[in-house]
Amino acid sequence: MPDKTAFAVIGGDLRQAYLAGLLAKDGFDVRAAGFDRDAELPDTVTKVSSAREAVGGASCIVLPLPYTLDGATVNAPFSRAPVPLEDVWTNAGKNSLVTGGRLSQSVYDKADEYGFRAADYYKREELTVLNAIPTAEGAVQIAMEELPVTIHGSRMLEAGFGRIAKMHCRDLSALGADVICCARKYSDLAWIKAYGCRPAAFASLPGELPGCAAVFNTVPALVFDEKTLSRLDRGCLLIDLASKPGGVDLEAAGRLGVRAIWALSLPGKVAPMTSGAIIRDTILNMIDG
Amino acid sequence: MPDKTAFAVIGGDLRQAYLAGLLAKDGFDVRAAGFDRDAELPDTVTKVSSAREAVGGASCIVLPLPYTLDGATVNAPFSRAPVPLEDVWTNAGKNSLVTGGRLSQSVYDKADEYGFRAADYYKREELTVLNAIPTAEGAVQIAMEELPVTIHGSRMLEAGFGRIAKMHCRDLSALGADVICCARKYSDLAWIKAYGCRPAAFASLPGELPGCAAVFNTVPALVFDEKTLSRLDRGCLLIDLASKPGGVDLEAAGRLGVRAIWALSLPGKVAPMTSGAIIRDTILNMIDG
Amino acid sequence: MPDKTAFAVIGGDLRQAYLAGLLAKDGFDVRAAGFDRDAELPDTVTKVSSAREAVGGASCIVLPLPYTLDGATVNAPFSRAPVPLEDVWTNAGKNSLVTGGRLSQSVYDKADEYGFRAADYYKREELTVLNAIPTAEGAVQIAMEELPVTIHGSRMLEAGFGRIAKMHCRDLSALGADVICCARKYSDLAWIKAYGCRPAAFASLPGELPGCAAVFNTVPALVFDEKTLSRLDRGCLLIDLASKPGGVDLEAAGRLGVRAIWALSLPGKVAPMTSGAIIRDTILNMIDG
Amino acid sequence: MPDKTAFAVIGGDLRQAYLAGLLAKDGFDVRAAGFDRDAELPDTVTKVSSAREAVGGASCIVLPLPYTLDGATVNAPFSRAPVPLEDVWTNAGKNSLVTGGRLSQSVYDKADEYGFRAADYYKREELTVLNAIPTAEGAVQIAMEELPVTIHGSRMLEAGFGRIAKMHCRDLSALGADVICCARKYSDLAWIKAYGCRPAAFASLPGELPGCAAVFNTVPALVFDEKTLSRLDRGCLLIDLASKPGGVDLEAAGRLGVRAIWALSLPGKVAPMTSGAIIRDTILNMIDG
Fold this sequence. Notes:
Chain A is built from twelve helices and twelve strands. The first copy, chain A, is an alpha/beta fold. Chain A has two domains: 6-123, Rossmann fold (3-Layer(aba) Sandwich), CATH 3.40.50; 128-268, NAD(P)-binding Rossmann-like Domain (Rossmann fold), CATH 3.40.50.720. In chain A, the strands form two sheets. A six-stranded parallel β-sheet of chain A has the order 3-2-1-4-5-6, with helices on both faces. In chain A, strands 9-8-7-10-11-12 form a six-stranded parallel β-sheet, sandwiched between helices.
């Protein structure tokens, strides 16, 4: 990594504020713009008043996740004034790295036009893996808050065995739950067994629901339709961790009186400092190689 | 256990409501009094309008934890009308068992006077052990709610190694925290090591505080005085799980800007159904032998 | 699965003997050939004297792992007389399934010629995953046997993070070891951290070796060359779990006085009954879907 | 601890040899006698040829566990010549500490007579706790060696819930076994549940035996009599970890064809270096306070 890397952190929520502080703690020169309100930026970060001022001379420009909500300005909830994306593009140095989350094609086009490099940290596999940690903890927290029983000693079912489910099954088991995990692939069922949970084929999911205190979905497809929902015990909590379109027919859940919670974007909500650290680590990996 | 055991559940909060339902589910005849509001008593429990009606003919009369707040009436937050303790004493059958939490000497005196047996389930070791499970989970929940970081990967310190600390250290470790536990006795330090946490002598506690994201006290004596509190990192969360008088100088904590939370009576708050099940199990043990 | 599935189990070691017994316990009709010596076949398995007799009428013919050592006869260490492969091919019924481990192309050719179906259970992902369980336990057993220290409290390093390493790191951590795992990919390093071990980049492996009581290699490439071997503490145990060509320069290890053990084919050696059950499960998956 | 503590290590097996080396590594002046054969004493330990030479001037004299087998000489299996206890007593300095394992009353009498202090490290609770770690691992090792199945996925029963059982249940669970633990006290059954195993009352032990791959006894009283032994599955392994008189009718086990192993004194056998470290830690605690 170049010794002299200077970072510009532009906009974002608490995650980006923490990220700026962590980079400064690592010894980098960090300038931040778009943090007028609330956010606690430590004194080690140089707070500047415009994106232009922050970006100029920076080796790496860090945009938030997602980098924009409107296509024209940086997603900067802590900024009083809008921060135009154009101010970033036009001030980014030649060969500087502009990185953000969920970058659209237009950013790569701007990179070609202005001569900077663009990269999406949200596409990095290590970030997705590490984000499963706060997501899983967030789902545990919601279950603790909502259930009248402890996780310990309760039967819980997880639908799917992707990254989030892997971490979440681990957390639930570790806390003493009796965890059933449903997956389609034989190799996933083998892993579920290897990791000490009880595997069940997807076809047998409805039959496994009675007796469960909580059920967690991680599959972004309609797993919990009305018929399946009707198999849940009264009082069973259903938490959907799947990204859009989700896996629960929420309307049917309402009709049936099923307590269903669609928990999206947990990392930034339940652990903004950890989320900031994950983005920081990922960006340093990107710079490193 | 006598086949014909009939239970009277008199007063209490959600825990006792769940307890009544669980006993009914076990096949016992259960009558409940003191639940006019809120509480969800299942249909399998016979709801009666007075303690007298519930108590008459019952082999076992279950009072809440604590059984009274004023010395004259049953602790019955869900009851519109006060439930006089005297109604229980005078209607309890000869040799019936009256059990409750934190019974005072006067209850044993009444037992002698009226010919029933009195026993305090809160004095049973198995209840205290099992209550450590919801207490520990409650402490995890608070830490998850209050901290901007995940439990996973955070350094946490536990003061004391009694029942609650044993469970809580286990939960924190299981979730991936780096757990230091301070104890006085060499044998406790040996157990801490055996269970996979890092042991530290009490004398070295202040030196272990820097770097901790959260600190938990379980010792009911002033461990966290002003000098010790001043060693905590800014932003470190301090949760006191010790019963009165607690182990934290809360006034000094306020002065120093330390976020300190005194979390008492967690089982009934965070997991009333599990707490009811624990009381139920304990009472059945008492009857059994 | 067809109700009437009849199995023929031909040759193999203890694993196949257990497998035959497990299939019989599942209620299938099982005939076994090639088990004259040692092997304990339960009475529920019909022992026949020739492959021809076993194979005729069977829906599924199970060959060992590997199915042959010489290309002409079934790998049948418990059989006094050689069992010609040709006896299997010529007697296998039309559309019957012939399955074995490490089938060569010639088996598929025979399948086309004689009209049976051929499938290699050793190529199934779930078998490879499940085999990681006995392999990891076998590696723990060897470490326990060879080391003068407990796993608990010892520092151990794992090179690689494939299936075997995942299970083995889990076992070592669970027993209380301080586990460092070296991997190349950032996403693997993220998983190592998520699963509670300490990740280290491959480049820093040599520097992590001092202080380790045991080191385990799972990478089938020369990781432990003379220079790297020279970094091991005196008395450090090196166990190579990688398939050929292995990852340790054994000659250099000998010169340097490093205790190095190349532990191959552990499942059949340390847990033949579990290995038989894994093959059984895999074959039933193959028939099922 | 006094800076100038000099240690004399007299006799013993590998544990004491390692202990001497560890004390030297801690920076203490260590003289050792009674190690002529086999034992690897590092160069940092001063090897002397007589107890007299080692003991003179030492602040702390360390005898083995047990300190003697015949009442007249030090238990010194690595010494060619006998090492008379009298040589220790008469040369121990005033106020020096003589410590050993299982000291008889006569040692305390000699202490009074000659003016040294005597203390038995084997009576220290922390040593007993820490010794449960190698004992539990040793029991795991034996089970791995003897069973044709993996610990993972096997049902195992533990009788008793003392120190060894606590550690051993933890190890078995951690490796993925389905662990049932039988205890008498309700509070122990509560702990078993809290720690994630399945509790069973002692009275129901015989009924829990079928289906177990291995059974471990830790109760030093006849738990496994002929009738109970007859409930074990064929092939079930029975390991008795209880000190004399043990808990298994070995004669009946032989008659019934039950594989029973009485595993005594595991720490010194399976992990002599860890055992030496445990004795070292305990002695330092004794000196410290």
